[in-house]
Amino acid sequence: MDIILGYVTTILVFFFTYNIFTLGLNIQFGYTGILNFTVITFMAIGGYVAGVLAMPKAAAGSGIYYILGLNLPWPIAALGGVLAAGLLGYLIGQIALKRLRSDYLAIVTLATGTLLYGLIGNGTSIFDGWQGLFNVPQPFAGFRTWTPLGYSIFFTIITAILFVLLWLFANRIYKSPLGRVMRAVRDDQDVVEAFGKNTFKVRMTAMVIGSMYVGVGGVLTIAYITALSPAGWTTGETFVVWAALLVGGRGNNFGAIVGSFLVAVVFNEATRYLPQIPAHPNLIPDIRYVLIGLAVILSVYFRPQGMFPEKKNTFLEVPLGDSSKAIEEHLGGLSKVGEQ
Amino acid sequence: MTTISNDQSTPVNVALEVESLKKSFGGVAAVDGVSFSVEKGTITGLIGPNGAGKSTMVNLISGALKPDSGHIRLDGHGIGGLEPHQIGARGLIRTFQISREYPDMTVMENLIVSAANQGEKLINVCFRPSVGKKRDRELVERALYTLVTFGLYPLRNEYARNLSGGQKRLLELSRAVMADPKVLLLDEPMAGVNPALIEKLGEHIVGLNKELGTTFVLVEHNLEIVEKICSKVIVVALGTTLAVGTMAELRKNQAVVDAYLGGDVSERVGS
Ligand SMILES: Nc1ncnc2c1ncn2[C@@H]1O[C@H](COP(=O)(O)OP(=O)(O)O)[C@@H](O)[C@H]1O
Ligand SMILES: [Mg+2]
Known about the structure:
Chain A is mostly helical and 340 residues long.
């Protein structure tokens, strides 16, 4: 029983975390049309920064090197991680959003991500290089004496609460005037600009909020797994998030959830039980990528808007009363103009 | 003649003033020292052969392109070199030669998103969502009213991408109305539109000009409609101002006839 529960909680944490990544990308791409091709870098920065804020100073001679090590309480460390991801979004935005669009922007994000990957991997004293951070203290671990299962359940609940809050906020943005302007920017940036709206600011807002979402996912990842290394955030992982969004339905947060479930949970768990072939240890992860790629191809071919396309937004129209009279009068006025 | 002037010597009744404006693309001088002014509350036509630099002028005036030299003044204030959104926010709204609706938004959304001050600040989204909701109610009412006026009311919940070419032209104009422009700069709003709709678009422009006092600058090839609704017409050729006057005056101007009216296809079709 405990084994099953432990398994379920792990899947749930993974699922909710993935959802948070996908919501972040949806705000950037689905709402605003920003092609962020380095989603996973924001996860990494969020996770690493929270990690080095929560961990104690790197002990001399331990063979592990990292910056800071401030031993801060988790809520503060987590906040630091999320802000760091947001700051990275802001900096990349300054480079990429000022003048660039679509594919050029995508290339810049990809290049920046690759650069950071190399820097963090090779610059061993930042986040312990290729080896990565490990033995990261878990949030609220000393709060009481946890059984491993008890802690897993507790962590699942925290993750679920964060997911629900971020889901509500993402929906709130979507329905707000800001979300509407974001979607207009996605559809035609020049026109929005011509109508007197600062589209750089709008895109930057989406970029930073989305990056912070992904950063939250990164903080949850390192806190749950207690470790993070470059092997855990290869470029391919970015496209897993993309796949989840495209298959689920961009612009639709519900689609984002379904996509995350399919890509992150179903494909991951289904491939987990394939028989291991010792001579080919990478076969199973590769099969996973193949399946994800196949899902994207099928989706783009048969259902380009995703399984749950963006919904049509209608407005509550005032009951026709005074306004209908005004409309009639106006129509009368106009036809008179036409007669002249 | 002396006119009351402000410090930049723009007469007070002038909405838009362009002076010695220049823009080259590599070796091509697309706009080569053009000057003209547009009086407040008028409908002014801007005509000229293809490649004369009209669209480039629209792009310069609206800030989409930066001028090499020259001055652009809106209500007497220099706007040359400002960002497009700064110029839009000052009340100069432009449309594009090719219809550019927001395809994946409904007709209603296309209109509402074009209004100024929708409460789109992030702080409102976080802490004061009622600001946006309240403003939305006003905007919905205004948008409905505008859509009825433009005959798009039945299509209000249709995705803009599904509209016909003519309906997209109507949408562009009604969307511009939502922004409360002082000056509306229309780049060939009647291109590719059937004669009945050209007539209707002309009526809308005249109606808006009369009712709201909106100043119009109309870049257009259809000289019949230009003659009908424009009180003043500016002819440009090879990036410079060739002549200014009423359409009737311009027809008698030999230079204009030679450069544009004489052998022009649209003129032969038009008259
Ligand atoms: N972005 C550009 N790059 C290079 N040449 C351009 C560009 N835009 C316009 N031109 C050139 O400038 C001239 C004026 O074009 P345009 O302003 O579109 O004319 P019009 O709108 O009057 O037909 C043309 O010769 C055109 O080829
Ligand atoms: Mg043109």
